[in-house]
Amino acid sequence: MLIGLDWLQWAVIACLLTLPIIYELNNTFKYYAKFILYYILVMLVGIVVMFYSLLRPRRPENARLANWLVNHMRCLFGLSIEVRGRENLKYDEAYIIVCNHQSSLDFFAMMEIWPERCVPFAKKELLYLGPFGLALYLVGTVFIDRGNREKAVDAIQKTSDEIRNNKVKVFIFPEGTRNHEGAMLPFKKGAFHLSVNAQVPIVPVVISSYTDFYSKREKKFGTGKFIVTCCKVNHNKRPNRRDVPNLQTTSGNKC
């Protein structure tokens, strides 16, 4: 029995010694290992933010803790961010941020530039992601049922009222889904109808390509740097419904 136990211990030790070598030599193993760590940490952030937010649920201010935790978490992955035009987000009035969506790693960019009193717009399915989904709910996230147009329109109307009454900012990925291929997908109209209903401007934000350090197709996830550009807009200009098609096609080209 003791001899068998010795062999088991040596096998475990051998595996532990081998894993760092495989990690350094095999990009696919590194890719999955880093994403497993990433999602574990995101869930842990969700748990901490969830318990913190129970004291005052559905408040945008609860996102400050997530902001602090995620910005420190990013250092573990060797990723750095250069922000250009950050001053364009330092505005006391409400506005809507529209941003391109490449990967779940966009979470790092979001938290790096997250302004005061801002809430995310997210698909309803994210609500069911355990502690992370509950944390999203408790920081005031607006969930959209994309399969039910009536509920989606109702959510946009309620959010418009919240924006007008409480000067809340909203962060939206208008492409509606992740796009790993570089070029932007067509924008959905929800963000622009929200802008018109609430009579607030849109601030386009562009996250540069991750191709130097990340590729889903090639199973690459290394260290590196990317740029987040916050575009300048005229906060005094108020959109109308005739502007929606133009806003939808030009917001990604503002910077």
Blueprint (SSEs and pairs):
Layout: H1 2-25, H2 27-53, H3 63-73, E1 79-84, E2 96-99, H4 106-113, E3 118-123, H5 130-138, E4 142-144, H6 149-166, E5 169-172, H7 190-198, E6 202-207, E7 214-215, E8 220-221, E9 224-230, H8 244-250
Parallel strand pairs: 1-9, 2-5, 2-6, 3-4, 3-5
Antiparallel strand pairs: 6-9, 7-8
Helix pairs in contact: 1-2, 2-3, 2-5, 3-4, 6-7
Structure description:
It catalyses: a 1-acyl-sn-glycero-3-phosphate + an acyl-CoA = a 1,2-diacyl-sn-glycero-3-phosphate + CoA. The chain is α/β, with parallel strands linked by helices and 255 residues long. It has a single domain (26-252), classed as Glycerol-3-phosphate (1)-acyltransferase (3-Layer(aba) Sandwich). It has eight helices and nine strands. The strands form two sheets. It has a seven-stranded mixed sheet with strand order 1-9-6-2-5-3-4, with helices on both faces. α1 crosses α2 (27-53), α2 (27-53) packs antiparallel against α3 (63-73) and α6 (149-166) packs across α7. The longest helix has 27 residues, at 27-53. The model has no long low-confidence stretch (mean pLDDT 88).
